[in-house]
Amino acid sequence: GLNLPLSEFPSGFCETIEVLGLERANLNSLLGLEQFPSLESLSLLDLLQLSDVSALASGNRLTELDITSCNRIESCSVIGSLPLLEWLAWENSKLDSLRSFLPGERLEVLLLGQNTVVSDNDIGCLLQFPRLKHVRFRNRRSYDLKVLDVNKELQTIRPGPFRTLAERQLERLL
After folding, report:
1. How far, in Å, CA of 20 to CA of 124, rounded?
2. Is the pTM of this model over 0.85?
3. What does the H/E/C string look like for 15-84?
4. What is the largest CA-CA distance in the chain?
């Protein structure tokens, strides 16, 4: 695993990186992420010590964010203010509220993990995201809406296709 903080990467190396995946690194925070000004896609996987993601605020070019098995994150409200974020996967055990991802001005796709529990049960707030076209989450008895109902409603108010992550990545390569 990586034991070097992001802030200690050589700056010349970081400036042009557009896609970054951090897996099983021993990081408490994302401090130093500002050294990656070209970053468009970030994947955080199995960062068991990660509790502070406030440095995501520097991700002004991020369009894709995948946070999986990082269950110690204390607050994810910074995600909602990422200006270009279009695709978000949140596959962690808990999420206090989907409102944490508002305003989510450009968010089109939101994928919640099978084990993710939205604590406030307010699924209906997904309809407040101005560009959201597709969601995935596990239906739970306590939720106010089912996944099928949300996606049907989203297609009614914002018809048209959405791009999968694979399609997005393929476009970047071409």
Report:
1. 32
2. yes
3. CCCCEEEEECCCCCECCCHHHCCCCCEEEEECCCCCCECHHHHHCCCCCEEEEECCCCCCECHHHHHCCC
4. 51
